[in-house]
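Give me the fold.
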Amino acid sequence: MKNYAYLFVLLLIVAFSIFVYAFQSGITGRTKKTDTTGCYCHGETPSTSVVVSINGPDTLTINETATYTVTISGGPLVRGGTDIAVSSGILFPGDGLKNVGGELTHTEPKAPINSIVTFEFTYTAPDTTGDQTIYANGNSVNYNQQPSGDQWNFADNKIIHVQSPTFVSNEILPNLFSLSQNYPNPFNPSTKIRYAISQTAFTSLKVYSILGEEVATLINEEKTSGIYEINFDATNLTSGTYIYRLQAGDYVETRKMILLK
């Protein structure tokens, strides 16, 4: 009987450990967008000792992409993690983040630099005007493999004002990077994508699902100045809306295309 009692206690300890530490590779659904309990595995209530901030532009035009960061400071902060969500638009993960169901979370707890943990990501505004909200929380953990002593907090919501684009004459800016709308669109099963590079730059052109999951890499190399066109074959993909994203140096632009089979 004692052996059974010992085994039962051991199983409880293992189960509790799994519950507490299963989220070391990230967790979603813990921002103010969907949940007010936050990251309960690191404590029942948010701590004002932990400061979580969302940083980046307050205004974007429709379909514009910009870089944002979530920073975490305070608390034990041997390591930090995050959950990032948005009301509408597309989130793209930076280093140390991954996309899970349209939200971003850490791939593993991240060590601080100068007492701050920073997660960088990009956000593409939707194709309609209006205010959008980026949500986030952050945890600050002691990383001692014990559930006690960890802390977390919500970030203040980041409001993004999405506006209509302002026309800029090519006579004023004659040599621009650009990404054209694919043609045909909608398409089945292939379409052409044209883009322009105004100066030599390492260039990537990738295709994502509407949830931000990468489905194809079309270009990933240095390109010299010029106008390019590439064929995208979506034979192995299902019908739906997809995002294609051009990054050339500091220039980033995204557009939507529709696959109809």
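Residues 1-23, 167-174 have pLDDT under 50 and may be disordered.
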